[in-house]
Amino acid sequence: MYSLQYSQIEYSTGYSPSTRTYGGAYSFSTSQVVPQHYHIDPVSVLTFSKDESVHFEPDSFLNPLRPETETVHDESVIMDYVREAFQAVFNSPFPSNIQLTVCSDAHFKSEHAKTGSVWSDGIVGFSLNTQGKGINKIFVRQDKLDRVLLTIGHEIGHVLTPSLVDGRDEEAKAYSFSLAWMDVIRERNIAGIADCLLPRPAVNGLHDVAFDFTMKLLNQGKKAMDVFKDIVYGVVTFGGFYG
């Protein structure tokens, strides 16, 4: 069973990031020094891509004929759903070192401007990964409930662990977690949006190499959380997979 307790993550499957082999149960604290294949900065801004023309698009995972859900204006409306989904994935409470904010378009754009990243009207969420040295922040635009919950899942995938050197691996990491996130939402009908989600994510309109990489691993029979762990610990990398 996966578990996450605040700043400490424990995986019972026992991946060892120092040797990249399987061993006994392994745990690490985000405050510890992490392996060299992680990129360490005091603060790292992670949007869907350094190329802002490509970004996470929740509609690609949603049924176009789905019923309309309510609009979420602030995070208080959905935190119970977020906690429920996180608990279902990790069997542990939502971590205290992740701060979630759902904000108006103006507030969202203002916060994004502080990152120095290129702005695009298509951006629906971004995150600040403190690499285990503070509070990780997630910002999501006000939107329909189903779209907001899927965006949050993607951004949580970015900040659960330190960001990876290769941006393609980092995006694949976030995608693999978001797929596991969607699985538990669908299985438990969290927020009543199970019927809004597609049985398998659509790929039309998401021509991103990280997503393609993740889907290739899933098509090999891996589960989404196994793909997430493999990418986090460097068991698989984009360069190694395609090299």
Question: What would your notes on this structure say?
Answer:
- This protein has one domain (3-242).
- Strand 1 and strand 2 (8-11) form a beta hairpin.
- The protein has 243 residues and is an alpha+beta fold.
- Strands 6-9-10-8 form a 4-stranded mixed β-sheet. Strands 1-2-5 form a 3-stranded antiparallel β-sheet, with no helix packed on it.
- The protein contains 7 helices and 11 strands.
- The model is unreliable at 1-53 (pLDDT under 50).
Number of helices: 7
Physical arrangement of strands within the biggest beta sheet? 6-9-10-8
Radius of gyration: 17 Å
Summed over residues and divided by their number, the pLDDT gives a mean of 76
Q: Terminal Cα separation, in Å? A: 33 Å
Strand content: 15-25%
**Helical content band:** 25-40%
Task: Please state the structural category.
Answer: alpha+beta
Spans of at least 5 consecutive residues with low confidence? 1-53
Could you say which overall geometry the principal axes of the C-alpha atoms support? Answer: globular
